[in-house]
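Researcher: We're reviewing a set of sequences before deciding which ones to prioritize for further study. For each one, I'd like a predicted 3D structure that I can look through quickly. This is Diaminopimelate decarboxylase. If possible, include the structure in token form so it fits the rest of the review sheet.
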Amino acid sequence: MNNKDLLNVAREFGSPVYVYDSEKIISQYERLTSAFKKVPNLKLNYAVKALSNLSILKLMNSLDSGLDTVSIQEVKLGLLAGFKPEDIIFTPNGVSLQEIEEVAALGVQINIDNLSILEQFGTKHPDIPVCIRINPHVMAGGNSNISVGHIDSKFGISVHQMPHLIRIVENTNMRINGIHMHTGSDILDIEVFLYASEILFDTAKQFRDLEFLDFGSGFKVPYKEGDIQTNVEELGKKLSKRFNDFCKEYGRELTLAFEPGKFLVSEAGNFLVSVNVVKQTTSTVFAGVDSGFNHLIRPMLYGSNHQIVNVSNPKGRERFYSVVGYICETDTFGSNRRISEISEGDILCFKNAGAYCFTMSSNYNSRYRPAEVLWHEGQAHLIRKRETFDDLIKNQVEAEINFPVKELV
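Model: Here's the predicted structure for Diaminopimelate decarboxylase, in token form for your review sheet.
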């Protein structure tokens, strides 16, 4: 998409609005499959939590992707989008046994990450195959909130608890058909990832009925021009050879699975906002926009960097701005950013807004969540309406209480 396309979307659908470029999603999917083309059985399970719009899920289905889900609601979205149950893996954390059983009844692959639930599920349902999520105790992510393989993480069963895990499997006669790990997001050091993979291979040797090994994901994408990213081609070359060698040692061709989310959709997303006010203070020039962390929380939550472009004046003289939102507390998208000169009414574009952006939006300050648009083959398609006041109050129930009216003196 170019600046003219983005401006046309903003004019047609208003702002703020999320726009996703299907061509970029497809090219990222093909890039990853190409990197691992030497693996006979490769399965990419798109991480629904990154961007869960039904139209995006249908696009993934058309690419022959599977789905990685973390809630029964995501499972149901996947089924509604046309995915077969066997193409969905359920990898929750801290959910009830009841929710896991409900998902299992739908025919979805179950992935369990704690000993308590593993024992309960195996005792009640020994015939249902289960994948086990291990914690390799390897720190391979970026921000601490998105690094999930370290020793203090709540995710996964510690590799040091393997004797206990095996005892549960033997006592329940349950069938383990997969081993899974996820070290975290924004992986840069391939050697660290490969080191964690060796822990996964060692764990896998202890189970004889495996069908797949799931290496998680977390591949870093560039957030700005010249930014570093995961070299998936190098990783594909090294891990493919090691995986194929392991399959020979194991005596069976297994499936190599990944669960990419951000890698597939992040760069495809653009978030368009309108400038309400340009405010000069004694030390800063603020560009206040018609959005806030209710729509895009990642900069405030993670300190994430989203490149900001003035698509209304892309070739203008660059000046320094702090771009802020309209939420009634500190609400900063970017401080002292060099951006083409901004005027009130201009449309700004936040790049890398495809992953964990709309899905983490809220109605804070009683604001409406924005519309979503899919740009496909040169045309804009509305895939989610902008919320209205009716959406804001539709689930509220007015209690039948006669509150006393305070008399004014």
